[in-house]
């Protein structure tokens, strides 16, 4: 299992950003290997978001982001936010935490 972490700093319209994010989330959640996700918003800076998405493995995530449909959806994000993406593996977790 891997976790995709993406920090997004919005520099465009937040409502448009949220609409694009929702379309991307709907697409990704329908892909093979997708387990679940969580979206967080920074309390001190309302323009900073974290997206956490859990995947069965890195290959499943890679297949999803290489698709033409994903590429068509994600192009709308560029004018609205700066992403800082990365895939992470669990090193340790407390009981009851993924």
From TrEMBL:
<keyword id="KW-0503">Monooxygenase</keyword>
<protein>
    <submittedName>
        <fullName>Antibiotic biosynthesis monooxygenase</fullName>
    </submittedName>
</protein>
<feature type="domain" description="ABM">
    <location>
        <begin position="2"/>
        <end position="91"/>
    </location>
</feature>
<dbReference type="GO" id="GO:0004497">
    <property type="term" value="F:monooxygenase activity"/>
</dbReference>
<dbReference type="InterPro" id="IPR011008">
    <property type="entry name" value="Dimeric_a/b-barrel"/>
</dbReference>
<dbReference type="InterPro" id="IPR007138">
    <property type="entry name" value="ABM_dom"/>
</dbReference>
<keyword id="KW-0560">Oxidoreductase</keyword>
<dbReference type="Pfam" id="PF03992">
    <property type="entry name" value="ABM"/>
</dbReference>
